[in-house]
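Model it.
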Amino acid sequence: MAADPLFAHLAIGGMNHHTADVDMLEQFRFGNEEQFLAEIQLHFKGAILLQTCNRVEVLVQGTGAGLTEFLHAQGRTVFEVREDLDAIRHLLEVACGIDSMIVGEDQILGQLKKALAAAQMAGACSPLVEQCVNKAVHVGVEVRRRTEINRGAVSIGSAAVTLAEELLGTLTGRHILVVGSGEIGMLVTQALAAKDLTAIYVANRTYDRAVQLASKIGGKAVTMDELHRYLVLSDVVISCTSAPHPIIRCEELKEVMKGRCWPLEGHPRPLILIDIAQPRDVEEGADQIDGVHLCTIDNLRTISQSNLDYRKSEASRAQTYIEQELNQFVQLINRKAADDQLSMLHSWAEQIRVRERDRALARLGSEDQRAVAVVDDLTRVLVKKLLTDATFSIRASAECGEMEAAASLVHAITQGEKLCIQKKE
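Modeled.
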């Protein structure tokens, strides 16, 4: 059964791995997230920015046309926009891991929570947007509980390790350097810990973080100043920092490859660089250097495709659950959106209550605080009881997406008194 229409407008715009390669994602990415959130809240009631290694998407409480205009003003010209029901469905699919490059991966749940927290901190998140994200995370957790979509699932980090293994045939006896000790770096090292490696090196801008991660998997922590030396020693480098600029540059790589030359042959030992950072850690053009084999997130698509085939039936079950949840989700959003109408109604009723209470107290001519309290309580109870049915009807209309009916109810009630006053005058 199709979901009811939305009482409030929501839109999602951006690009992801389905239609964009790593170059396009990097160009679309917003470097200063705080500045972006500060600006977008001037245009929409609420918004969040979700940026991962394979998607850059903006969710707003507003129209698709409004979001399109805003993104154009930000210098973005190529992107996809989804509105209302399609936007909600997409948000649920993202949270459930159906839309991920690595189907069923769990990291997206943490990334959604992080995006929500950043929007809240910046003051850009409305109650409705917060409700949408929290509900999507809840559905994502429930899908993973009800299905096996994430059973044995690989992450971006472990997919990078699988790619390295496919390229080399085996990782047994190899030296691996991991650059970056954030969430993805941790996933990479966890996957590497299960391999029969000779050495795992962990480099990070904050050395203490590198030490903590290396100690968990029996690796060796190195400083960024030592990066050149360990690039020479390693067979594979998996880089996944959050640096805003390349940290492995072409000029440095040329020197590294000189140190990797085979005796008497003049050709360097091959070096595999797997760059899964966004923005990229390895400078463009590195793959033109003799002996360097560069892979990016785009190269993980073959890993993710086999992952998708393996979980096809579970993804189908998850999609069925999403469609079941969609109606409830829409009703929840519409119920929340009805608060504006109800706020108007109750503000109107409160003004009348206070006015009539004061008139009654003036006629009584009593300053007895007990009498004042009794009259005040009486008027509050009367207003609450009189508005109970109206409140229920307005919420029910809103949940069904009948915006005009909800607004008409409020208008009929609030305008009725004005018409009576006009007739008396």
